[in-house]
Amino acid sequence: DAGVIQSPRHEVTEMGQEVTLRCKPISGHNSLFWYRQTMMRGLELLIYFNNNVPIDDSGMPEDRFSAKMPNASFSTLKIQPSEPRDSAVYFCASSRRQVNTEAFFGQGTRLTVV
Amino acid sequence: GDSVTQMEGPVTLSEEACLTINCTYTATGYPSLFWYVQYPGEGLQLLLKATKADDKGSNKGFEATYRKETTSFHLEKGSVQVSDSAVYFCALSLPSNTGKLIFGQGTTLQVKP
User: Fold this and answer.
1) Mean pLDDT of B73-87
2) B103 CB near a chain A CB, below 8 Å?
3) Strands (DSSP E) along chain A, which ranges?
4) What is the DSSP letter of A63?
């Protein structure tokens, strides 16, 4: 299995631009998570989906952030408009929706907003 | 609420020294406990896990025992190597939130030759 695949690995964009991050979970996994990692705040859960349905988006920082999962093999995290404080590493993770299971992480997207 | 607290880093050790990274948790119910490791420039990888009280997880020479009485899951290794230099995250998952992880703040380990 190729694991969780994220793209792009690196993104540099100007303030005010729209940014879209992409994730392909592991085949057969039905839970998907978006995390943000910064030095100041560590790892923060932004949103997670079960069977393509958003379950908890309480970690999404504000309305500029949105996430979709149109099917079991693809998810996007969009920031519009982007701001310098959004600079971080964004991780996608997936798991089987069952007790005691672990999540598998992608390599992350390093976003820099200038 | 549910939370995980790790010892603050960075932790700096010489090669072959003993390692302990403390982790305690607060949870409603009976969580599963995990240690993840993040090497520079990479995503998080599962290092080990334990799903019930007194279980011991182990991998690559690392061990951690699920202690319900002290709500702890300390990570230990008897002899560290330079290649163990990384950030280590303790995490929990509740049965009601299958797959959703609550992470500690991470502890940076640096091993010097």
Assistant:
1) 97
2) yes
3) 5-7, 10-13, 19-24, 31-38, 42-50, 53-56, 65-71, 74-79, 88-95, 104-105, 109-113
4) T
- pLDDT value at residue B99: 66
Looking at chain B, how many residues does it have? 113
Mutate to test the interface with B, among A34, A96, A105 (most CBs of B within 10 A): A105
Tens digits of residue pLDDT in B27-57: 988 899 999 999 988 899 999 999 999 999 9
Residues in chain A: 114
What pLDDT is attached to residue A1?
A: 64
> Which residue of chain A comes nearest to B96, CA vs CA?
A99
What's the burial of A81, exposed, middle or buried (CB within 10 Å: 0-12/13-18/19+)?
A: middle
State the SS3 of chain B: CCEEEECCCCEEEECCCCEEECEEEECCCCCEEEEEEECCCCCEEEEEEECCCCCEEEECCEEEECECCCCECCEEECCCCHHHCEEEEEEEECHHHCCCCEECCCEEEEEEC
Q: At A85, phi and psi to the nearest 5? A: -70, -5
Mean of pLDDT values over A13-30: 96
Interface A–B counts its CB contacts (< 8 A) at 58
